[in-house]
Design brief:
The complex is a heterodimer of chains A (about 300) and B (about 280). In chain A, the strands form three sheets. Chain A has a six-stranded mixed beta sheet, sandwiched between helices. A four-stranded antiparallel beta sheet of chain A has the order 2-1-4-5. Chain A has a four-stranded antiparallel beta sheet with strand order 12-13-11-14, with helices on one face. Chain A contains ten helices and 14 strands. Chain A is elongated. By secondary structure, chain A is an alpha/beta fold. Helix content of chain A is about 35%, strand content about 30%. Chain B is mostly helical and about 280 residues long. Chain B has one domain. The longest helix of chain B is centred in the middle third of the chain and has 35 residues, at about 110-145. In chain B, strands 1-2 form a two-stranded antiparallel ribbon. The chains are: A alpha/beta (about 300), B mainly alpha (about 280). Chain B: Keywords: Membrane, Transmembrane, Transmembrane helix. Chain B: This is ABC transporter permease. Chain B: It holds the Pfam family ABC2_membrane_4.
Chain lengths: ~300, ~280
């Protein structure tokens, strides 16, 4: 079931600059969906429209049955978000910042705020002014504000931007924990392929405002359809592969199987045809290979 | 309603936790002390002595704490007050945009209209607090020098007011006038607030508002606009001084303050429309 439905979004920043071109996708309950694309591909614009900060020229976003464009307050009642870089009120403490932000949601519960601050490991620094916080601490406070009051879904816009490797790992573990423990649905906007690969179930890839792909993160696909063959009988092997209906990339020796045949069956046919097989191994394309192939970068 | 008060409380916390909010209070306290010193100079006292004596009243009685307070208020508030009110109101929407705070505020389930209304209310609240602070610190400083009691002498040449009141009535009139003055000054805040809703720097909103008020004031004082001065906001803003007339001209006050209220409401609505139409993305 889709928690967020993005429907036919179109946005033009200027007459000559199309930011989004009829983009649609769903964010299903309980999944982590990665929104991937180069800088300027339209990722933040989608998030901006989803949060009602940006007005689309066409299309709409529906959250839990409520259109953001028609009933923003009710639609956003179900989500928490980090949108672009989080800039807190430097002259207020972390605690005061949370209080001010939560008041806009019409909610405040000290015990819950303390629990969330503990979760993001900021309970010791909550009483300090945010101008004394490091970038990593600000990001954790940004996550804390997004988690108050308990949203069903998190929208994270490049949340690890500017974090050091430890900070990135800490943040990743925290987000995965949120999904595992609270069943949270998460939309992660990132241009870091490794981040999406490690965290997301599915991804949407954008290029110049157009959706190029929506589906399972390639490296997580359960069905193995690509294999790598090493053989000295290349000509004979090519014939068997062609007969089986599979395709072979001559430069990488990667064989992509059609849907009616599985890996060990083709291997058996190769051996039976007398092809001397030196190596036969499944090949999982990385997200990077997939992304670069798709976007032609 | 409770939700609204929580949200307003948050906005007030943001406003009064900032140091620059207090610049106006500090500056006015300094100005009041300077003006008190000036009004205590022999040469200056002699001018007022002549003015009061010419009306057949005793200078010693009517050059009192409340007279000094009213003079300070009259001399300082329109220009210097306008600067600090425009500074805060010009900041209230534009600075949040410049600092990127809307990325945190507007991901919350709150409408832009409500957010702006809370901000407008906060800016209006600041106007009242600042004007009352000026009025009553001026009075307290006057008390420190002249002590309790005496009469109240008030002179506003442009409104043709030259009146003498007893102490109790003087305080009542002064308190009432300070409230009307605060309402008048919300016009400055409203102009700054309106400009602040555009995607501009906070300083531009402040300077824009002050420029508008100054141009309005200059036009009124040149005399060219005498037949059209009802179109000038500063004309209606100055109506507060009529509280000191022997018989308060309520119809004049009601007319001017209705126009001020209408102007403020229009500026708020237009500002909100501008802000609603904006895409908030870096």
């Amino acid at each position: 079931m889709a928690l967020i439905e993005v429907r036919n979004l179109t946005k033009r920043w200027r007459a000559d600059r199309l930011a989004l071109d009829d983009v649609s996708f769903d964010l299903r309950q309980g999944e982590i969906l990665g929104l991937l694309g180069h800088n300027g591909a339209g990722k933040s614009t989608i998030l901006g429209i989803t949060l009602g900060m940006v007005r689309p020229d066409g299309g709409q976003v529906v959250i839990g049955g409520h259109s953001v464009q028609d009933d923003r307050a009710r639609a956003l009642g179900q989500i928490g978000a980090i949108y672009e870089a989080a800039h807190f009120y430097d002259y207020l403490t972390g605690w005061q910042n949370l209080r001010v932000l939560c008041s806009l949601s019409g909610w405040w519960d000290e015990a819950e705020a303390k629990r969330v601050l503990k979760l993001v490991n900021l309970e010791q620094r909550a009483g300090h002014k945010t101008k004394t916080y490091s970038h990593g601490m600000r990001q954790r406070l940004a996550l804390a504000q997004a988690l108050l009051p308990r949203p069903k879904c998190l929208l994270l816009d490049e949340p690890t931007d500017g974090l050091d490797p430890e900070g990135i790992r800490e943040f990743r573990e925290l987000v995965l924990k949120l999904r595992a423990e609270f069943g949270m649905t998460i939309l992660l906007n990132s241009h870091l392929l490794a981040e999406v690969e490690q965290m997301c179930d599915r991804c949407v890839i954008l290029k110049q405002g157009k959706k190029m792909y929506e589906g399972i993160v390639p490296s997580q696909q359960k069905k193995q359809t690509v294999f790598q063959l090493q053989t000295r009988d290349a000509t004979k092997a090519r014939e068997v592969i062609r007969t089986a209906g599979a395709t072979q990339d001559p430069t990488t020796n990667l064989i992509e199987l059609p849907s009616h045949i599985v890996g060990h069956e083709l291997l058996q046919q190769l051996v039976q045809a007398g092809v001397r097989v030196d190596a036969w191994q499944p090949h999982k394309p990385t997200l990077e290979e997939f992304y670069l192939g798709l976007t032609g970068a | 309603m409770i939700l609204f008060f929580h949200q307003w409380q948050g906005e007030l916390l943001k406003l009064f936790a900032r140091r620059r909010t207090y610049i106006g209070f500090g500056a006015f306290l300094g100005l009041e002390i300077v003006l008190l010193i000036v009004f205590r100079l022999q040469g200056v006292e002699r001018i007022f002595e002549r003015l009061i004596s010419r009306q057949g009243q005793a200078f010693g009685e009517y050059y009192s704490a409340i007279t000094l307070a009213q003079m300070i208020l009259g001399f300082s508030v329109l220009l210097l007050g306008a600067i600090y009110l425009a500074l805060v109101a010009g900041d209230i929407v534009a600075k949040e945009g410049e600092d990127g705070h809307y990325r945190l505020l507007l991901v919350r389930p709150v409408t832009r209209l409500r957010l702006l209304f809370i901000k407008y209310l906060t800016s209006t609240c600041y106007t009242f607090v600042l004007i009352q602070f000026i009025a009553w610190t001026a009075f307290l400083l006057g008390l420190a020098i002249k002590g309790w009691g005496g009469g109240f002498f008030v002179m506003i040449p442009e409104a043709g007011i030259l009146e003498f009141y007893q102490w109790a009535e003087g305080i009542e009139r002064y308190a009432l006038a300070s409230c009307f003055l605060a309402v008048s000054m919300t016009t400055v805040s409203s102009v700054a607030f309106f400009l602040s809703c555009f995607p501009i720097k906070p300083a531009a909103a402040t300077i824009g508002a002050l420029s508008y008020i100054l141009v309005d004031l200059i036009l009124r004082n040149t005399g060219f606009m005498d037949n059209y001065d009802h179109f000038l906001l500063t004309k209606h803003m100055s109506a507060w001084g009529r509280i000191y007339a022997e018989h308060i001209p309520w119809p004049v006050l009601v007319r001017s303050f209705t126009i001020i209220a209408a102007a403020n409401a229009s500026l708020f609505i237009l500002g909100t429309a501008v802000f609603e139409s904006r895409d908030l993305k870096s």
